[in-house]
Amino acid sequence: MKRTKLDELMREIGITNTGLAAVTGLHRKTIQEAREGIVRQRYSTWKKISKVTGVSVYELQKVIDR
Question: Which of 22, 24, 30, 45 could form a disulfide with 41 if both were Cys (CB 3.0 to 4.6 A apart)?
């Protein structure tokens, strides 16, 4: 199963898709798609998530094999 660094980070800090959507101003579905890596996101989307999490865009996009 493949997971993204964003998914791992969200699990570690205990934030939901809805919670991250609320603080970033993005839609919940956008967060879900970024988290699952099923849809390629715009750079501006990653920048918003990066700003809130304090993790670089490069790191957030990494795929982790499990």
Answer: 45
